Amino acid sequence: MKDKNDMVFQRFDHIILIILSLLVVFPLTLLVMSSISAEADIIQTGYNLWPKKFDFSAYQYIFSEGSIFHSYIVTIMVTIIGTTLSILVTTSISYTLTIKELPGRNIISFLILFTMLFSGGLVPSYMMWTKMFHIKNTIWALLFPSLLCSAFHVMITKSYFQESIPKEIPESARIDGISEFGIYFRMILPLSVPIIATIGFMKALMYWNDWTNSLYYITDKRLVGVQALLNNMLTDVQYLMQSMDSSMIATDETAVPSLTLRTAIAVIGMLPMVIAYPFFQKYYLKGLTIGAVKG
């Protein structure tokens, strides 16, 4: 009877998972197929899972912008550097907060938690970064503001250290005369692969999708990332479409493919992270669940 009940539960579980998977795959498939559909077909019949006529003009329009490859390089570089720095900053702060003998530990924890609830706002932040740190039109403008360290990530990483790493490990290392830096690099980080992969993927996603820092702090076209470039491209096309009649868009072959351009931009923007996610999934789920057990 127990085996029969288990089999029924497994079948029911598989059906639910298949339905949920289809709910995820369906919009992604619709998005990709819409991006390679003819603009006139979308205007006449709407979005379809299979294009009536394949048309790659949206991608041709995007890649006709010569600077998009340079913007890709900028975004990849910023994502790699920013994610690495974020992991080091987040894990070092989190490990420090697990040391009960740390002077002012509760005050530091309160200040970090306070930033989750309140912020100075855009104008003070802009003035601080541009007037005090002078990062405007530098690569640091894409790395530091709002992205380098997150209070939420510090809290879940701290919880992971407390729940998953036995306190006897750093204590015994201190008795053996190992410094805190040695404990952090030689013991804490190697035992924290799941949480590092978790916050690393979340940070990489944030850096990859960020376009606001480029909007606020960058006027040099050489430092514009791919998301900011695609956003500017979409804004320009929308402005052009306001002065064009819809019938002209549907019939004029030289017209800018506004509808398919939106979906193509979404595909280009999300594709690298979709490809990277399966490599982080195992650690991502484990690190997120363990790190959220206790605050």
The helix/strand order is HHHHHHHHHHHHHH
Distance between the termini: 41 Å
Approximately what portion of the residues adopt beta-strand conformation?
A: under 5%
Outline type = flat
Summed over residues and divided by their number, the pLDDT gives a mean of: 82
Count of alpha and pi helical runs: 14
Which residues sit in consecutive blocks of at least 5 with pLDDT less than 50? 291-295
Largest sheet: none
Number of strands: 0
Share of helical residues: over 70%
Structural class by secondary-structure content: mainly alpha
Question: If you compute it from the alpha carbons, what radius of gyration comes out, rounded to the nearest whole angstrom?
Answer: 24 Å
What can you see in these coordinates?
The protein is 72% helix and 0% strand. With 295 residues, it is mainly α. The radius of gyration is 24 Å and the shape is flat. It starts with a helix and ends with a helix. Residues 291-295 have low confidence and may be disordered.
